[in-house]
Amino acid sequence: MNLKEKTRALFAEIFGYPATHTIQAPGRVNLIGEHTDYNDGFVLPCAIDYQTVISCTPRDDRTIRVIAADYDNQVDEFSLDAPIVTHDSQQWSNYVRGVVKHLQQRNNAFGGVDMVISGNVPQGAGLSSSASLEVAVGTVFQQLYHLPLDGAQIALNGQEAENQFVGCNCGIMDQLISALGKKDHALLIDCRTLGTKAVSMPKGVAVVIINSNFKRTLVGSEYNTRREQCETGARFFQQPALRDVSLEAFNAVASELDPVVAKRVRHVLSENARTVEAASALEKGDLQRMGQLMAESHASMRDDFEITVPQIDTLVDIVKATIGDQGGVRMTGGGFGGCVVALIPEDLVPAVQQAVAQQYEAKTGIKETFYVCKPSQGAGQC
Question: Has UniProt tagged this entry with the keyword Ion transport (predicted)?
Answer without folding.
Answer: no
